[in-house]
Amino acid sequence: MNITVFASSSPRTPQMYLDVAATLGRLCAEEHITLVNGGGNSGCMGAMTDACLAAGGHVHGIILRKFQEENLGHDQVGQMDIAENMRDRKRLLMDHCDACITLAGGPGTWEEFWEFAVERQIDTHIKPLILINTNGFYDGFIQQTQRAHREGFLYSAPEKLFHIATDPEEALNMLCKI
Can you say whether the dihedral through the CA atoms of 91, 94, 118, 130 is positive or negative? Predict the structure, then answer.
């Protein structure tokens, strides 16, 4: 199984979120899941990749050429694809996975998450999408999605767009049931 993980790349990411990312990376390796991510060397992305590789796992990075040229790519990733623009990068991240998990992050992470959710809503794919809501980080997203459903802006219930987990263990267990 290949799981794409959207996550922060910021070197300022708080330790609590780095720890969750590292746990997810280690669990992917232990479960023989190929971790697919943006190929970055810092933030949750870097912590997750480091932990996965340290546990003997496989990571497939898909990085924007600009980031690679700025030496922001993880130099230990076994397979690194280079995308010319963000649209192509997101498409490759979606195409190379069986499911997607989203960790804490900023606008880039959010945009990737929402694009994946939109594609689920319009039925262009049915791959599972799980949001790990560490420390209530995504409470605002969840509340806004519930409101959008109540007020008629969603075609289906929020649970049809994405599932919510509190930690990596729960997220991986959900994938076994979806």
Answer: negative
Contacts of 95 (CB under 8 A, 6+ apart): none
Q: For residues 178 and 176, what is the distance between their CA atoms, to the nearest angstrom?
A: 6
Task: Please give the residue range of the domain that contains residue 73.
Answer: 2-173
Name the most confidently modeled range: 11-25, 62-76, 77-91, 116-130: 11-25
Residue 88 domain-assigned (yes or no): yes
**pLDDT of amino acid 177:** 84
Max CA-CA distance within the chain? 47
E-strand spans in 33-170?
A: 34-37, 59-64, 79-83, 99-102, 129-132, 163-165
Position 40 in a domain: yes
Overall pTM > 0.70: yes
Count of CB atoms situated within 10 Å of the CB of 84: 10
Quote the number of domains for the chain: 1
In a domain, 178, yes or no: no
